[in-house]
Give the backbone structure.
Amino acid sequence: MASIDLLSMHKLFLSNHIKPGGTVIDFTMGNGHDTAWLAEAVGENGHVYAFDIQPDAVAHTRRRLENADLIDRCTLILDSHENVCKYVSAPICAGVFNLGYLPGGDRTKTTQRASTAAAVNAALSLLEADGIILVAVYPGHTEGTLEGKMLDEMLSGLDRRIFSVSKLRIINSPTSPFFFAIEKH
Ligand SMILES: C[S@@+](CC[C@H](N)C(=O)[O-])C[C@H]1O[C@@H](n2cnc3c(N)ncnc32)[C@H](O)[C@@H]1O
């Protein structure tokens, strides 16, 4: 029996909100898999802003996008995602956070509660009506568990007249990744 594939659910949520020609943000570019997917989704008239604090992540993502001929619709930014409002003022139809550290990379360069909270709040301030913010959490390490708890508290308090917040989690596998989907009405 096939089990739920969280990654394809993640894309399904995003696909329902991303408009061709829209502006989106990848808040954790890593090796650029999500950045490339988002660049395809917005089409040639759309734009993707992508953030990471590691120069290698920016270099790997740039190469991936150049090879796929998607670089012209992307802006890659070497800075912490909490500073997003210094670079982006346009309303966004989607924002993606894939928290944690790069698999196989430097585990000390993991996302942290304080900057994650600031970046998610900034993302919500940029979100247009009918837009979505997706936050994938990896509770298999200590900071990931704490980020999940922090987000649970923070997102539970959002005004339900403005946002619907869902959490998709396999509840009998507590260390498996899960995600929050914040949809703006
Ligand atoms: C799980 S990886 C992202 C994987 C990526 N989405 C992909 O498709 O390959 C998490 C990334 O977040 C980055 N990161 C950590 N703290 C950050 C911060 N404050 N601002 C932006 N990126 C950060 C890490 O350097 C790492 O590359």
User: Anything to note?
Assistant: The longest strand covers residues 127-137.
